[in-house]
Amino acid sequence: MAHLPLSALLSEAFVAFAIEVDNEFEHLMPHRTADRAAPSYTPGAPWLTSVAMWFSCLRFVTDGGTSVAEVERLARTRTNWNGMERWRYITVAPDPADDRPPPPRSDWIVRVTPGGRQAQAIWGPLPGTIEGRWEVRFGRDALERLRSALGTILEQLDPGLPDYLPIIGPGLFSRIPAEGPLPRGVADAGSDGSPGLLVLLSKALLAFAIEFEDDWSLSLAICADVLRLLDEAGVRVRDLPTASGVSREALSMALGFLEKQGLAAVGTDPEDGRARIARLTARGRTAREAYLRRIELIEDRWRSRFGADPISALRAPLERLVRAPAGERSPLLSGLEPYPDGWRASVRRPDTLPHFPLVLHRGGYPDGS
Asked: Is-cis flag, bond preceding 102, omega within 30?
């Protein structure tokens, strides 16, 4: 395996961890999906979503109700409000005690449904459960070295970063609100009170993405997951999900953005009239080269800012998680076998993982599913 950027190492670990959490939640939580014939389908239950919706919404809704503004303040990011209500996790309505005609939506009260309350009880401990499995699978010492390296770097980053990657916005950029300090006492803490591994990975990734996207016309998600894989000769669009580890829907969004920017062209494959092929334009090739330089530059900046030893101490355990001997699969993939009745059991198993997570409004899955 070629040298991977630090952001790609962080991403593969983050995505693998999040998918394991999601698989376990699906197994434990009564839910609905589009497959009404699935053995796990439960009529009237909430629609299945990813752990992103726990971190951006349900985690902060109390039994007495919490205002929209307060949930967003605590989460330090915005959730898919319409989705969470439509998916039957919450209700959002004006406070009956507020007689303004009508009050602003930010003051409306969020309350959990019975299904949402059940989801809260299941989601809460799951990151810790998966972290325990990783300690067994990869070794407690290795996980502790990774947590320690991440913690050393995060001590020097913005303390107001949310605990989970935000839902990606237009252009697939990573955006967070810029108002107010991070509240105390809301971190997803481990047994010793420190942030959990999923939170640590997320914060480091988001900090890297924000720096990459500052004064830059392309998002890290588009560059790392799509632009990186294209060339002027062309790549079949149907091969991109396998090559990137990203869903077809997310790839369609990314390719559409690249086409509008004049960086890629998508057309019929001359060797197979039924297939579509994506090619870089001359401008796209220049952008790809600039992306590769920029991602190296940011890692060099981090070495200067945080110290060469802390960055090396972070890369080492991540490389052991991600890398595999020639011809073998990444060790991270060993934990991604879904339950037989899970939706991922009916789709192709990934051979690789995204070089940047694509947390979309569609449900928050880290690979854009």
From this structure: yes
The pTM of the full predicted model, rounded to 2 decimals, is 0.94
Using alpha carbons, select from 199, 201, 256 the residue that is nearest to residue 226.
Answer: 256
| Positive or negative: CA dihedral 104, 106, 109, 113 | positive
- Characterize 91-112 residue by residue with b for buried, 16 or more Cβ atoms within 10 angstroms of its Cβ, and e for exposed: ebebeeeeeeeeeeeeebbbbb
**In terms of residues, how long is the chain?**
369
316 close to 145: Cβ distance less than 8 angstroms? yes
> Measured between alpha carbons, how far is 162 from 199 in angstroms, rounded to an integer?
8
Beta bridge partners of 272: 269
Convert 338-359 to b/e letters by CB count within 10 Å (16 or more is b). beeebbbeeeeebebbbbbbbb
What residues have CB less than 8 Å from 338, skipping those under 6 apart? 23, 26, 344, 345
Within 10 angstroms of residue 217's Cβ, the number of other Cβ atoms is: 11
108: its two tokens = 């409306």
> How is residue 147 written in tokens?
């947590």
Supply the DSSP string of 219-259, one letter for each residue.
-HHHHHHTGGG--SS-EEGGGHHHHH---HHHHHHHHHHHH
The token duo for 54 is: 């726990």
Segment 13-51, tens digit of pLDDT? 999 999 999 999 999 999 999 888 888 889 999 999 999
Q: What is the pLDDT of residues 102-161, one digit of tens each?
A: 899 999 999 999 999 999 999 999 999 999 999 999 999 999 999 999 999 999 998 889
